[in-house]
Amino acid sequence: MDHATQRERAASLLALHTAAGPLVLPNAWDAGSAVVFADAGFDAIGTTSAGIAAAQGVPDGEQLSREEMLAVVERIAGAVDLPVTADIEAGYGDTPEEVFDTVAATVEAGAVGVNLEDGTGDPDRPLADVADHVAVIRAARDAADEADVPVVVNGRTDVFWLGVGEEADRLDHAVERANAYADAGADCLFVPGVTDTETIGALVDRLDAPLNVLGGPGAPPIATMADLGVARVSVGSVPMRATLGLLREIAVELREEGTYEAMADGVPYGELKELLAAAAERRDG
């Protein structure tokens, strides 16, 4: 994908964060799921690291190599005429220089946004030092500038997601971290694990950049998110896991009952063929 097209898509993605109502961002795990989301009329698509990893048969948490993850991102970005923002976990690197390289490679894969989390996967040190993640966000911004693509950087803090510290202190802790990421160049701030309206509203009021909330069962509906001032609602691996839930129902019915009812609402073969043919033409054209 040429950088002129990416610049247009990046500008469009950023503008969607300040439009009326939140950007509702479905998260794809392969080109086929991206095509289905695009056909449903969404304005942009995210990727899900957990979904991509699961589709390859491995757990989340940078168990796939950077090259394996970005190969899927490239297929997704090439399959749709929409801005694609990529979940690149903690950046696939131990240094800002390595994260710079990851973001540069993500742009080359066709994405125009990146999600960078401060969770470490280490139970003894669940969150990166603020200064270290600030350096990661700055490295992402530098890589975007060098590519001349205004990549939308989503700075994620996992304070609530991982339940770090005392519950009463988490709001202040998350705000401090997230605002440091905004100061470093993050365009949007992602605080997953928050579902109560009081906390969401407080985050909207206290953060220095638009708020991204993780949607799904137990979270407020989109209309409520809009009333609270949330700028972006993504759904992470939830659609992929729901798809696997349906697949498990199909498997149980097929194995135990020998019937096919759980498969009844599948996308018709001819319709799917047309959608994927159009995607292949975009990718190869």
UniProtKB/TrEMBL annotation:
<dbReference type="InterPro" id="IPR015813">
    <property type="entry name" value="Pyrv/PenolPyrv_kinase-like_dom"/>
</dbReference>
<protein>
    <submittedName>
        <fullName>Isocitrate lyase/phosphoenolpyruvate mutase family protein</fullName>
    </submittedName>
</protein>
<dbReference type="InterPro" id="IPR039556">
    <property type="entry name" value="ICL/PEPM"/>
</dbReference>
<dbReference type="Pfam" id="PF13714">
    <property type="entry name" value="PEP_mutase"/>
</dbReference>
<keyword id="KW-0456">Lyase</keyword>
<dbReference type="GO" id="GO:0016829">
    <property type="term" value="F:lyase activity"/>
</dbReference>
<dbReference type="InterPro" id="IPR040442">
    <property type="entry name" value="Pyrv_kinase-like_dom_sf"/>
</dbReference>
